[in-house]
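Let us work through a complete example step by step.
Step 1: write down the sequence.
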Amino acid sequence: MRDGFIKVGVATPKVRVADPAWNRKRMEELILEAGEKGVKILVFPELSLTAYTCGDLFGQRILLDRAKEELRNLAFASANRDMLIFTGLPWAQDGKLYNVAAAIKGGKVLGLVPKLHLPNYGEFYEARNFEPGNEEPVLVDWEGEKIPMGSHLLFCCREIPELKVAAEICEDLWVACPPSTAHAMAGATVVVNCSASDETTGKSDYRVNLVSGQSARLVCAYLYANAGDGESSQDLVFGGHDLIAENGRILAQSPRFHSGLWTADIDVERLDGERRRMSTFRMEGAFGYRRVEFSFLPEETKLERKFDPAPFVPGNAADREKRCEEILSIQAMGLKKRLEHTGCRDAVVGISGGLDSTLALLVTARAFDLLGIPRERIHSITMPCFGTTDRTYQNACLMTKRLGATLREVDIKEAVTLHFRDIGHDMGNHDVTYENSQARERTQVLMDIANQVNGMVIGTGDMSELALGWATYNGDHMSMYGVNASVPKTLVRHLVRYYADTCGEEELRTVLLDVLDTPVSPELLPPEDGAISQKTEDLVGPYELHDFFLYQILRFGCRPAKIYRMALSAFEGQYERETILKWLKVFYRRFFAQQFKRSCLPDGPKVGSVAVSPRGDLRMPSDAAAALWLEEVEGLS
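Step 2: predict the structure and record it as tokens.
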């Protein structure tokens, strides 16, 4: 349960209609299986102790009494299980019959949650047998004790403050204002649903959308257990369609027409953090709710949850292509507006033959097409210097020509050499001054050419570089509009590949593919035997690791130990533990030390849920201390 991970389960037992003892035994088998898998919260379907399809047999006292007896037996059988269990049964109280979900923990029934909304249309006629439940909890007799009964119950874990569980039953979810909405606003991070939803054509898709959508709106985990095999098929068929969702994402889903147990790991820390981030998620407090506390033994969840090693890049090819087209459009539309507003009909792009400048040039070409401005007014400037290789130079020139932009070469070797003489820098000293002088000279050239043509300098730096501070202050750090400012390096690659695959020009495609195959480098140090000698990822670490860290830090506010744990899982077999830890330390050191560069970034379009603009997503002081984060990272060694 460390780091907020809780293993949960939804289960559909095979049932016999009106045979509570038989049904309880099937549940015990599933509880045993769930215990072996480390499940902490387990949900069974609606009226699962009796079966849902008993009809007027719910009027028989013998069935109602036996259901309560088997609830007692189920509680007793699960006494040694460190598990919160929800199961459904009919409950007679004060001359009325209620459809309830009973919460069981440690051999005791903690409370009863009644169904509020009874469907009495189509194939359903629950109002014939049941009474709508009460919201405000009342105390009812059970085994010589008083237990709460009402929909406004919050089952709260003492050891995990973020874990608050509430329940609703089947139709409650399908109404205009589900009880789960109030539950979440009262603090519930997990909502369970004991359900009996029959199968009709197309209903399963609607059910998935309903569950995933509700979990997204409420920023919660939603555990949906549905009735299945063994229910009466006199008029209906139940498919046992079980679902586990978290904040809009389906974590687990059973195939229909199968009985059994389905599990997933939910992250209540993540849910709690997301709610804090969203100022529009209103917590109205638990007024009118009764807290029922329970305890879990301290235990580390053995994770089955998978962590995407490339969270910025969709894994599915079709989704990835759709995302790439969308991002290119956002970038181009942002630049289009800036050009329109300023009256600029010329743009200046420093083109190096690398990935970032390639993407910037492609976006600029698209923006010019949207404006109906000839691409000849895109001034593509190549500025060879000490580290430029023939490969990148040729790719920059060929790409510019194929796109129809105007190519201009400004060799900056002499200017930089004179600058070194002026400041008294030894040409043989290849230090940071040697490198940054070239970057700043290039920016000066671009700005001055922009003045000549009354144009705008288009920035090329990507979000990953900005996060690490891998940019020369007032060098490539500066522009008049940064089109790549919120595009991570791992996504830049896919955007260029998508353009290559869809441009319809073979020569352009060939050069773009060669750019993709070129090592990432600022090319500020002299080549070795004509090849790139300075590879960025050898110096600051693999961008796929840094993008993973960046996403988890900024999107969910995860602490270093949790990020390390997730990275070990995501990159298992790809990076050693020591390697991941090494670059995690580097990330935190650079991220904190380099905020001053991000605090004065040029404008640029936001394209995803994570960005580092000081005017939007990341309002971070430039002199914040990294000690707290680095201390935890050091403790992981």
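Step 3: interpret the result. The two ends are 21 Å apart (CA to CA).
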